[in-house]
Amino acid sequence: MSSIESESNQDQYKDKLIEKHKEAKLVRRIVLVATIVIFISLGAGITFGYKYIESALQPVDPTNSEPVDVTIPIGSSTRGIAMILEENGIIKNADVFRYYVKFKNESGFMAGDYVLNPAMKFEEIIASLKTGKILQEVVFSLTIPEGKTLEQIVKIVSEKTGYTEEELMTQLNDPEYLSSLMEQYPSVLTEDILNEEIRYPLEGYLFPATYPFYTEKPSIDQIVEVMLDKTEDVLFAYQDDMTEKEMTVHELLTFASLIEEEATAKTDREDISSVFYNRIEEGMPLQTDPTVLYALGKHKDRVLYEDLEIDSPYNTYVIQGLPIGPIANAGQMSIEAALHPSETDFFYFLATKDGEVIFTRTLDEHNREKAKHITNN
Predict the structure, then answer these.
(1) Do 124 and 89 have their domain in common?
(2) How far is CA 93 from CA 57, 100, 107, 329, 345, in A?
(3) Which domain does 119 fall in, by range?
(4) Which residues of the chain carry a pLDDT beneath 50?
(5) Host H or E run for residue 346
(6) For the segment 212-246, what is each residue's pLDDT rounded down to a tens digit?
(7) Residue 149 has what pLDDT?
(8) Are residues 101 and 190 both part of a single domain?
(9) Which of these three, 206, 236, 266, is where a domain ends?
(10) What are residue 43's phi and psi, to 5 degrees?
(11) Same domain for 321 and 199?
């Protein structure tokens, strides 16, 4: 064998080792998330979970190339596509497929009629799902801005779809419906949302974005699930950050909602986040006015001293730490700020009428700025 051939074989061997290492790393990462979701109720071990998921990543039947007709409807989410594939025997487990797609950062799946088979690998299935031929115009788009409360979101949905606000609120707060959603989204919706003191269980969980719909009046289920799909997709990227911060999804969305409500177009959200972190570390109440307004259940141009005394698990003037739940829906910038605050020694901030936010270190400094910008105006 020549030295050139020897070097070529060594390179091929190295490439194979690298590829196997990448595949093993992918399996381990999927195991960390999917094992919790799929086997938590069974108390299954990591070893069993690893073997199961490793198997689920393989073709259903490598020897069966019998064609199967599969239809992916317009507007299907990744979750919906995965369920269709599992139901048609193209993949073994819908959850494992979804996590694989997320880890690989795959997107661009298209509606259409496909001919697939049980012998296909995930990569082949994903490639096929990007070749759909069915095209349909969007009937309407639903835009949910950042910083909206559930009541405001319901109003927007009502105006766009014709459902009454009462219809929407009834379903969004129905215990059986919430239970079904918790089963569908176990990595996002936990028992935290069922605390009897929480005003609305889904407050803060319907992600702000623009959602296209392809029918005149999609069901309430479809509307809610497409928003929760988006929430799940966004939060998935921050799993490691949440683990590092020892922060649950509920805590993250709660923290981020405070930043969202305090932020202005000119505000550095990371600095606001740092103030909250600094106050929590020192055992100081967060004392953020939006939580008072949420506790009051109404908007006011100015929070009065008497308002600060309202007895509520949302009022951060009377409780320590975070409120019991989110007070609005937070955008991605606020979520990132909640996980990655600036390093400052600020303990106070003040928003002026022109949108500027002034950060200070001491109460005396804060009061001086308040006298300049608020009290005398």
Answers:
(1) yes
(2) 8, 11, 19, 31, 49
(3) 59-135
(4) 1-6, 13, 40-44, 377
(5) none
(6) 998 889 999 999 999 999 999 999 989 999 999 99
(7) 97
(8) no
(9) 236
(10) 65, 30
(11) no
